[in-house]
Specification:
single chain; alpha/beta; Dihydrofolate Reductase, subunit A
């Protein structure tokens, strides 16, 4: 079986974000670092009644908000925006102050991935964003022109691909506007495309102590996508919730 060890309870961590904040998120090639933060149940489910929020525990919900402080942009698929009722990114005041002290914007902007542009453009995700950090919309060149024009009225539109949003082009475009640390919050289809393209550098996975949710995994790989290996970097525990952090394996770099 190789080397097996029993994990023992360690010292209490006062700031749950601190172990994540210590991570060096620079890539050897200078490209943008892509991290994903997802939650799954004990049986592999990634939602309850179509909503991820109902699967989250209190410790996970707290860390979910804090993790955004590490990002330059928060990336999410359109279906997740619709299902979860996304609004602009908000952070606790102490995290806002820390970002400002480091010369960073108070909060990272939201970036929505959508091929169809079938979104409610009067939703908070667009109308509630600060004027200097408008929500980004990543779409493709073949998108409906009328919807594209409407999106441009309330968001910063980025075309990243011809007939679909291409993961490589999307990451290059985000880096081109200064976003070097990208935090993906799903959904499973978009995350699967990023993984399939070899773009995911880090997965922060919460294991919620629940079973019986929707039989949808945290990531849905495209047909024919290769396997990618990840290395476990740390394990944290709060009550019955586990937090696992993985990075792309050395053979993947």
């Amino acid at each position: 079986m190789g080397r097996v060890r029993m994990l023992q309870p360690g010292e209490l961590i006062q700031d749950p974000l601190e172990p994540y904040a210590r991570v060096d998120r620079t890539r050897p090639d200078g490209g943008p670092w892509l991290m994903a933060h997802m939650v799954g149940g004990l049986d592999g489910c990634a939602a309850i009644g179509g909503r991820v929020g109902d699967l989250s525990t209190t410790p996970d919900a707290e860390l979910f908000i804090l993790m955004r402080a590490l990002a330059d942009v928060v990336l999410v698929g359109a279906e997740t925006v619709r299902q979860e009722g996304y609004g602009p990114v908000r952070l606790p005041e102490d995290r806002v102050a820390a970002r400002r002290a480091a010369g960073r914007p108070a909060t990272p902007p939201l970036a929505v991935v959508t091929r169809s542009l079938d979104l409610n453009w009067s939703a908070r995700a667009f109308t509630g964003a600060p004027a200097d950090r408008r929500t980004l919309v990543l779409t493709c060149a073949d998108a409906d022109p009328a919807r594209l024009a409407r999106a441009s009225e309330v968001a910063e539109v980025i075309v990243a691909g011809q007939d679909r949003v291409d993961p490589d082009e999307a990451m290059a475009m985000l880096a081109g506007v200064g976003h070097q640390v990208v935090l993906c919050e799903g959904g499973p289809t978009w995350l699967g495309q990023l993984v399939g393209a070899g773009r995911l550098d880090e997965l922060c996975l919460t294991i919620s102590p629940l079973m019986g949710g929707d039989m949808l995994p945290i990531s849905v790989s495209p047909p024919g996508a290769p396997l990618h290996h990840f290395a476990l970097r740390h394990v944290l525990q709060a009550d019955d919730t586990l937090f696992l952090r993985y990075e792309r394996g050395r053979d993947e770099r």
